[in-house]
Amino acid sequence: MAIASQKDFFSGLMFAAVGGSFAWGAQSYQVGGAARMGPGYFPLMLGIILAILGVIITFKSFTQGGPSGDKIGSFAWRPLGFVLGANLAFGALLVGLPSLGFPAMGLIVAIYALVFIASMAQPGMKFKSTLILATILAAGSYGAFVKLLNLQFPVWPAFLTN
Whole-angstrom Cα distance, residue 95 to residue 88? Predict the structure, then answer.
């Protein structure tokens, strides 16, 4: 039996693997029942649904596909590296790395770094539009998380607030 869509086949396998691992990991928590849910109930049900969806997509990949077989293209390393790096930088800048002696830079600096690093994933990054986006996200995040939700985490670099 030939695969009609490689994209659907591998995405279905990925969904099934992620869903199965979530369902398996949720068993270490108290699951409970539908009337009295424990902390493991939601990840277990979500994992099962995701795994079932993955199996359905994998089976459909054998029958449905484009005329070219929906081949998988080359792997996009640049976007993967910059987006993952942006998230790691955000976490490190937000709270710092005390074990390495790196101080917390706060929410505003972390968001600017996140946006600028992630925008480098796209070739031909435009500085002005990235700066506007970072400013809007920083202001919105400050308003939502610090002012409205009263979350307690550093907003500015530690050396500016001491």
Answer: 11
